[in-house]
Every structure is written in structure tokens, then in C-alpha cells.
Design goal:
Radius of gyration: 16 Å
Largest sheet: 8 strands, parallel, barrel
Strand content: 25-35%
Helix content: 25-40%
Number of domains: 1
Structural class: alpha/beta
Distance between the termini: 15 Å
Number of strands: 12
Amino acid sequence: MLAKRIIPCLDVKDGQTVKGTNFVNLRQAGDPVELGRMYSEQGADELVFLDITASHEGRKTFAEMVERVAANVSIPFTVGGGINSMEDVDRMLSAGADKISINSAALRRPELIDEIANHFGSQVCVVAIDARMDEQGWTCYLNGGRIPTERGLFDWAREANQRGAGEILFTSMNHDGVKTGFANEALARLSEELTIPVIASGGAGAKEHFRDAFTLGKADAALAASVFHFGEIKIPELKEYLSTQNITVRK
């Protein structure tokens, strides 16, 4: 059985790591380079770096910051935010990223997924989906959760899978920062309907929530931010706990 992955996420705004609740009320959480190095040393399996206002502000992710983080980590490193073209992907990979994450750009022009997969390989392309559960079901959002779209979570995830995405990073906007657990029902459905790994995001508040994401939600990886940034959960302790729950993790 493939080991389940634990992935800290650095949401970066103006060069600082920040964390909010339901995508708003951001507070500072530290220097992304130092946090990245710490997580790499603690045994995180991967690292995700998201320039969370790049798409909204219409600018590119800071390549220099990516270079500095990449120089300080020894684990796979995914970068997202403001990536709209093949040139952007090339620039981030050249700066040291192992994978790139696209969200708004993919919703606006789904062919970008095909282009990245065909040129760089599916393993490079993570399609991030920010979705909110409302009376219509799960609706996908653009620009860091600011703009609702006509796309539903499951249809869009299936299309991204078919176009060549290597992974789906699903963030439940309802659960983001609330620390009451992941959206396990939606995760389980995604895991059953897709042929690629699903990364759970939004809702981690306790070690048990990671266990549930892997068992109930059938996720391949679980991503979290504030519980790691503010020291509420230590990655080595989390992995030790998951091992006691018969969940395979890399030590």
C-alpha cells in the first residue's frame, strides 16, 4: 500500500506566510523559507507554496522566493498562484519547484492542463480546486475563493483528471481554518470517481482529522497549514499517531 502523505502548506502574501479562516481574516505565521526548512527537517513528505493573492492581483508568483524555499528543502515542492501559461510553469520549475498547482487559470482555460501534462508530464500538474458547499451542491470558485463559477466540484475534477492532471488538491472552503475535520464525504466520492491521487485540504484541527481523511475520506494525502505553523500538531508526532491507527506513512 502506498504511504499516505502529510503536506504542510505555506500560503504566502507579501512575502510572509499567512493563515485565515474560510479564506478571510488572514494573520501572519512566519517566514516561508524558515518554515519550509523546518518542515523538511521534521519529516513532511511534501511542501506546497501558494501565492494566495497572485491571481486576484494579476501578478506572477515570486520566482526569487521560490528559489530560496527550494534551496532550503529536500522534499518535493509544489508552487501555485498566478500561473497562467506554459512560460509561468517553466519559470517556476526552473526556480526549483517540482510541481506546479493551477486553479483559476485551469477553470478559465482547461486546455492548459493538457498542455502542461503533454509538455512537462502529468506528475508536474496539480489541479487545485477551491469549492464551497451551498444549496446547489459543491461549487468551484476562482481567485482564491472570491468568484463563484458554474462548475461543480465532481464534474470539474473528472475533467481535470481526463485532461491529464497528476493530482487533485481539493480545498473545502466551508472547512478551511475551522479545524473541525476535512470534507470526508466529498473526498471519498472524489477518490472513488478519479484515477489520480486526491489531496485533502481544509479543516485539520486534530490528529484524528488526518486519520479520518485517510480512512473515511480515502484521501492519498492531507494538507494543513495553521496547525503546523502554530505548533498545535508536530509532524513527527502526527506520523507516530497515524502508525498506531494502521495507516502507512513514511517515517
